[in-house]
């Protein structure tokens, strides 16, 4: 049989189907790229979250250390304030003690312990010591013991032990 048209080769896919498949392929390729980008973003967010958790833990540890150091410094400041207060009190007490010594009596040494004051000095007479120094000392201390040693010039060396409260050696 004869035909007026020449036969054409039949293709498996028509031009429209090829365009449609190409379009679907391009769309699927773009979806894979977008999916990869989203997976990458999720990974970086997880990594950033992990890094932030580690930083948060480190900051909490630093905060605890800083709180410990702050408490330690506050305790040191309290001790310092107490030492300063005690020093000022002791300084004032020593000043008052030396203001208590009359001009006629000369001190060689003064030893101040926790509840005890020991004075060594020279006085013209026992009575001068008793009236001018012993009387004020008796008003401050509970117990007073004084020993005298006469010197060649007639004056007396004395040792006065004054105890505040009950003293146990």
Please provide a written account of the structure.
The protein is of the alpha+beta class. The chain has two domains: 18-100; 104-169, no CATH class. 60% of the residues lie in helices and 18% in strands. The protein is built from two helices and four strands. The chain has a four-stranded antiparallel beta sheet, covered by helices on one side. The longest helix is centred in the middle third of the chain and has 86 residues, at 15-100.
Uncertain segments? none
Q: N-to-C terminal Cα separation, in Å?
A: 145 Å
Order of helices and strands: HEEHEE
The strand order across the widest sheet is 1-2-4-3
Shape from CA axes? rod-shaped
Major beta-sheet overview: 4 strands, antiparallel
Radius of gyration: 51 Å
**Overall pLDDT metric:** 88
Please bin the fraction of helical residues: 55-70%
Specify the number of helices: 2
Give the count of structural domains: 2
**Percentage beta strand:** 15-25%
Structural category is alpha+beta
Give the beta-strand count: 4
Oligomer: single chain
């Amino acid at each position: 049989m004869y035909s007026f048209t020449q036969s054409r080769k039949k293709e498996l896919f028509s031009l429209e189907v090829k365009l449609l498949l190409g379009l679907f392929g391009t769309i699927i390729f773009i979806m894979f790229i977008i999916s990869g980008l989203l997976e990458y973003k999720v990974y970086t967010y997880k990594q950033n979250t992990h890094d932030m958790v580690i930083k948060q833990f480190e900051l909490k540890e630093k905060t605890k250390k800083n709180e410990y150091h702050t408490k330690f410094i506050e305790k040191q400041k309290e001790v310092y304030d107490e030492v300063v207060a005690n020093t000022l009190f002791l300084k004032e007490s020593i000043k008052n003690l030396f203001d208590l010594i009359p001009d006629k009596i000369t001190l060689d040494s003064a030893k101040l312990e926790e509840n005890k004051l020991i004075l060594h000095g020279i006085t013209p007479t026992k009575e001068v010591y008793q009236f001018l120094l012993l009387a004020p000392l008796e008003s401050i201390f509970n117990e007073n013991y004084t020993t005298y040693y006469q010197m060649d010039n007639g004056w007396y060396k004395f040792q006065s032990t004054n105890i505040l409260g009950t003293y146990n050696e």
